[in-house]
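Re: the request from the purification team.
They wanted to know what the chain is likely to look like in 3D before they choose a buffer screen. I agreed to run a prediction and write the result into the notebook, where they can find it.
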Amino acid sequence: MNANGKEKGRNTQRFSYPDSFYLMKRQGIQHLLGKSSNLGKLRKKNEDSVATIQHTQILKSISYPISICILSDGLGGHDGGEVASRIAVSAIAAKVMGSLIENGLFDSLKSNSMVSYRTILENATFAASDQIYQTGQQMENEMGATAAVALIIGRNAYILNVGDSRTYIFSQENGLQLITHDHSLVFRFYMMGDVKFEDIYQHPQRNQILRSLGEAGLREKLQEMMTKSNHPYFYQLTLDLGDSLLLCSDGLWQTIRDNEIEKILRSQSEPQQICNELVDTANLHGGDDNISAVYLKIL
């Protein structure tokens, strides 16, 4: 989706691991990464959490990169939101790393793995959700968090979202496009054609989240939502050289509209500088929520 809510076609052809590494060998791919998380101007604590992991092998002058990006927003109004988001990023990072190591996927010469990257992300996310639920039960607090998760292997991106933290793709040719579908009531209204895309930002029910980490039976609920309502939570695409991914919490995208985000992405090239400017701009617009961003560029 672009800034006006219109969908643009992307190359979503599925690549196996050996094919993706053939492309890396031919093109010498690099991942450049920036990240930032800020309290904002009105909140007393930062309930957002961010985790990034990068692994690169350079063999015969060829770069073989793998990146894991995770962003989570503890739900406002829930006790222990900051605890929930911390569990989310820590548990997902550990589970994804463990699965990649267990399956030998940090070995760039491995060519016979049939592991599903979707399964890796799903298992890690749902395990984190169960841990948040169990912690909430032990603390006798209702705990919840969103999640935006991206596993990038060379040029292939595997993306999962729960809640209303977003993942965008940016390219100089196509501009800024929304990849993920918010798991919110107002986004469901948009999908049904009841509201326009721009109405998402001002709708009186915009803060009502349909799904979040910490729910009992989250896996089944997400799969049912995808099947019955065509409301997805997993996405897969192939990135072109020069493309970038932006993961952000609603404290960013609710405060800065997509067209202004795109202007910032076009005006800067260094990922960390982009994240810093996005956070600064959100604060200039009021900073009424926690603000977090992860930006990864493919070169």
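For the purification team: The beta strands are 31-38, 48-59, 62-73, 147-153, 156-162, 166-171, 175-178, 234-238, 244-248, 291-298.
Please add any questions underneath this entry.
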